[in-house]
Amino acid sequence: ESDLTDGVFWRTDNDFRQGTNYLYYVTFDGVNPNQELDYPAMTDVLSDNAVSNDFNPVSNDTFLPSANFGPWDRNYRIIRAANNILEKLQNFESNNKPRFTAEAKFFRAYAYADLVRRYGDVPLILNTLDTDDPGLYAPRTPKAVVIDTIYNDLDYAAANLPLKSALGNAGYGMASKGTALTLKSRVALREGTWNKFHQNSNFQNHLQLAKDAALQVIQSNQYQLYNAFGL
Question: Which of 27, 73, 131, 195 could make an S-S bridge to 200, C-beta 3.0–4.6 Å?
Fold first, then answer.
């Protein structure tokens, strides 16, 4: 009685803003929802880059994987939520529709970028699945196809998200044009260097995309180098 279903939701701009805000929550509320830790920061804890009292079981080679291991489960939760928003937007008309679409595509690209970085080929799911859908058992999609999908999503996001300066204080921390371009640059740089050192011939295309996206961020005049000590 206290929950809303898809059938009575997704009717107004405010509904889509709330639904899109969920993507920020599911991305940054931590691998363990009971911990006040954000998901991206936890990735360093899974390596030897960050150590508290004890080494993480992944970094010290004692971890036993499960069917719902954090990064896999979390990223597909993000992807499903993004796909659901994109499907509901198909029958919705509003001046804000391009931005909602852009945010959903940005987070879908974010999740797939992390999956590809960890696993290489992964199932590419671009729609919501029911419990009896054969897509639940889809094979892995070649990494090159997933990467192209990431680029397409980020190109749309970069074209339809506002500049950082346009977000203002009320939109602090939300995805912007620069966010999408920065993620594209990082994805392309990793893919280009990986291909280069694995003797794949198309590495230069990815590196050029990384360069072009980074240059757009620089030339946007929205950012400056971080200088904590004022040097």
Answer: 195
pLDDT, tens digit (0-9, with 9 covering 90-100), for 130-147: 989 998 899 999 999 999
**What element of type H or E holds 115?**
helix 97-119
Cα Rg for the chain, rounded, in angstroms? 19
Mean predicted confidence (pLDDT) in 5-13: 83
The whole-number pLDDT of residue 145 equals 96
Count other C-beta atoms under 10 Å from residue 180's C-beta. Answer: 28
Q: Among 107-111, 189-193, 224-228, where is mean pLDDT lowest? A: 224-228
Closest to 83 measured CA to CA, from 124, 115, 113, 128: 128
Query: Average pLDDT for residues 61-78, to the nearest whole number?
Result: 78
| CB-count burial class (<10 Å; 0-12, 13-18, 19+) for 178 | buried
Integer Cα distance of 113 and 115 in angstroms: 5
pLDDT tens-digit readout, 98-137: 999 999 999 999 999 999 998 999 999 999 999 899 988 9
CA dihedral 30, 36, 37, 39 (to 10 degrees): 20
Name which of 211, 216, 212, 124 is nearest 176 in CA terms.
216
Burial grade of 226 (CB within 10 A; 0-12, 13-18, 19 or more):
exposed
Nearest of 165, 156, 17, 176 to residue 95 by alpha carbon: 17
